[in-house]
Design brief:
With 666 residues, the chain is of the alpha/beta class. The protein has 24 helices and 20 strands. Its cofactor is Zn(2+).
């Protein structure tokens, strides 16, 4: 039975690529040094998958920055401001597009669908002169082949590439990006021909935009593109990979009718409805790459459940045409659980990072082929049972409190104008008051103090003294600048989610559970494994301390429940909204304690609220309803005189701002 991995993390188990990149950017190491680290990472990844028994091993999923930027380089779609004069694109041009340079800004960066990863948005227009300018896909295929590993080269599909692009500056916003399809397909044909000549027998085209709400002309573009490529694809096996959601019936029909295609990959974790489409209509003699192992979370797969799903699909597509796969690239999960030496053993038994998911994929594939590893499955079943029955997962009081929320929509009892009047009498602010978002820059010295306190190298008294001194500097600066509503600068905080998660029950933290956000930037999401509650106040001491330093209003600064949820690895044994309500109740306790301590302005940041918006418009209303409800829960109990702020960022809110402002103010 065949197994497949959509993609793999590129940073390395201990962020080796991050450090190599930053050393190169700082001119502390050479391009050759960077390339050596990258080659070592690629080699270890391919060998790891081969040793695990994976049949379809991806190549060209490694990137020095971003896979979409790699596609832009392949197509030679370099914006004119970077002064590129043709030829093979090197590091200077590549990293200038990604990061900017002394004279020109970087290209725009935005979220990769509904993940926490960011991609570099291509800037296109009618005058772009496309050319085959990066041979990376072919070079990496040959590199793996020389190591004895025959891989499946992965390319961003031509239609998704265009749909993810934007009109360049000076190009009409109404310009049809899909009109460029005839200009980029010749480049794809060159790449395909070179891969075929190099010995590739399979090529994977990632076309994730197929899961979006697409119009008829957009779906037609897929049909036109692959019809044009059909003769070039002849003699190759072609996999079209989709992920992150279900396909609509129209998108599914378009996909399975594409010319020159051998196999279709689906996310069957977040796209369970696609299973019905497969059962009702799957092309004869085509391969199904069934994504049953979650590529976006860190929980051990329920192997028995996956096997059951696959057995049902086997009856539809045939044993010889079924390939076990991940739901998406493992880029979105942590790298290797073996590096977690401080995690509790019980919690660790419930987890699987990318390296472990590779093993899971092959174990399920072998079981489907009649070669079941009984001991491995038994261990997995025991871990699943442990997680379900563990008393550390369930808190009856939290469950009751969350269940009680269903009886109310938690709207404030007084209207907005009455609250504004009460707040003005209390705060006496000018017509247009000034404030800041909250966090001030953290110096190396400040980070050293926090690090040494955490390592027990300095006393608590010394730590508190140092933080108080930093807060006093921030307060004095704001008063000097005549800011109306002050902040304490958050010198005691490491990360806006981790800081709160460390003080809430139901959270666990890793040492090396890093996930790439963009470029060399990595984040280490907390793990929400159980019911969430707040054992004691989290921010009251520092906010009260700051308020004692000034007569002006001092804002209490909190991270909102939706952002904590969306920037964590979330438990998958209950709906996300239930976990969010639990976090909201914990933040509610903190809000009310801040108010009792004399903090009259409280900001509840929801930087990631937009990130969690489902990809399909039909699911927007439900998400926004519970997300905004969660925010309202946090502050429903405050007095009319207490002013509640929020801060949202990192996203385009144009399509949902009316609904947000209407619901949140009520």
């Amino acid at each position: 039975m065949a197994s497949h991995i959509v993609g793999y993390p590129r940073m390395g188990p201990k962020r080796e690529l991050k450090f190599a990149l930053e050393s190169f950017w700082d001119k502390k190491s050479s391009a050759e040094d960077l390339q050596k680290v990258a080659a070592g990472l690629r080699s270890s990844i391919w060998k790891q998958m081969a040793d695990a028994g994976i049949k379809y091993i991806p190549s060209n999923t490694f990137s020095y920055y971003d896979q979409v930027l790699d596609a832009t380089a392949m197509l030679g779609a370099v914006p004119p401001r970077y002064g590129w004069n043709g030829g093979e694109i090197g590091f200077d041009t590549f990293f200038s597009m990604a990061r900017g340079n002394a004279s020109v800004p970087a290209m725009e960066m935005t979220k990769w669908f509904d993940t926490n990863y960011h991609f570099i948005v291509p800037e296109l227009g009618p005058d772009v002169k496309f050319s085959y300018a990066s041979h990376k896909a072919v070079d990496e295929y040959k590199e793996a082949k020389a190591l004895g590993v025959n891989t499946v080269p992965v390319l961003i599909g031509p239609v998704s590439y265009l749909l993810l692009s934007k009109p360049a500056k000076g190009v009409e916003k109404t310009f049809s990006l899909l009109s460029l399809l005839p200009k980029i397909l010749p480049i794809y044909k060159e790449v395909i021909s070179e891969l075929k000549a190099a010995g590739a027998s399979w090529i994977q085209f990632d076309e994730p935009t197929l899961v979006l709400d697409l119009e008829a002309h957009q779906l037609q573009a897929f049909s036109a593109a692959y019809a044009d490529l059909e003769s070039t694809l002849s003699g190759l096996n072609i996999l079209i990979e989709t992920y992150f959601a279900d396909l609509t019936s129209d998108a599914y029909k378009t996909l399975v009718e594409l010319k020159g295609v051998t196999a279709y990959g689906f996310d069957l974790v977040r796209g369970t409805k696609t299973i019905d489409l497969i059962k009702n209509n799957f092309p004869k003699d085509k391969f199904l790459f069934a994504g049953v192992v979650d590529g976006r979370n860190i929980w051990a797969n329920d192997l028995a459940s996956s096997l059951s799903t696959l057995q049902a699909l086997e009856a539809v597509v045939g044993k010889e045409n079924l390939v076990v796969s991940t739901s998406c690239s493992l880029l979105h999960t942590a790298v290797d659980l073996v590096n977690e030496t401080k995690l509790d053993d019980e919690i660790k038994s419930w987890l699987a990072f990318a390296a472990q998911k590779v093993v899971e994929v092959n174990a399920v594939a072998k079981a489907l082929a009649g070669q079941k590893d009984e001991a491995f499955f038994a261990s997995n079943a025991a871990a699943q049972a442990s997680r379900k029955s563990s008393p550390r997962v369930t808190n009856e009081a939290v469950q009751k409190a969350a269940a009680a929320l269903k009886g109310s929509d938690h709207r404030r009892t007084t209207n907005v104008s009455a609250r504004l009047d009460a707040q003005q009498k209390k705060l006496n602010l000018p017509i247009l008051p000034t404030t800041t978002i909250g966090s001030f820059p953290q110096t190396l010295e400040l980070r050293r103090v926090r690090r040494e306190f955490k390592a027990n190298k300095i006393s608590e008294d010394d730590y508190v003294k140092a933080i108080k001194e930093e807060i006093k500097k921030v307060v004095d600066l704001q008063e000097e600048l005549d800011i109306d509503v002050l902040v304490h600068g958050e010198p005691e905080r490491n990360d806006m989610v981790e800081y709160f998660g460390e003080q809430l029950s139901g959270f666990a933290f890793t040492v090396n559970g890093w996930v790439q956000s963009y470029g060399s930037r990595c984040v280490k999401p907390p793990i929400i494994y159980g019911d969430v509650s707040r054992p004691k106040p989290m921010t009251v001491f520092w906010s009260s301390t700051a308020q004692s330093m000034t007569k002006r209003p001092m804002k209490g600064m909190l991270t909102g429940p939706v952002t904590i949820l969306n920037w964590s690895f979330v438990r998958n044994d209950q709906p996300r909204f239930e976990t969010c309500y639990q976090i909201a109740l914990a933040i509610k306790d903190e809000v009310e304690d801040l108010e009792k301590a004399g903090i009259n302005v409280i900001q509840i940041d929801e930087a990631a609220l937009r990130e969690g918006l489902p990809l399909r418009k039909s699911e927007h209303a439900f998400y926004l309803k519970w997300a905004v409800h969660s925010f309202r829960i946090t502050n429903v109990g405050v007095k009319d005189t207490t002013q509640i702020h929020t801060h949202m960022c990192y996203s385009n809110f144009n399509d949902i701002i009316h609904r947000l402002s209407t619901w949140m103010l009520m």
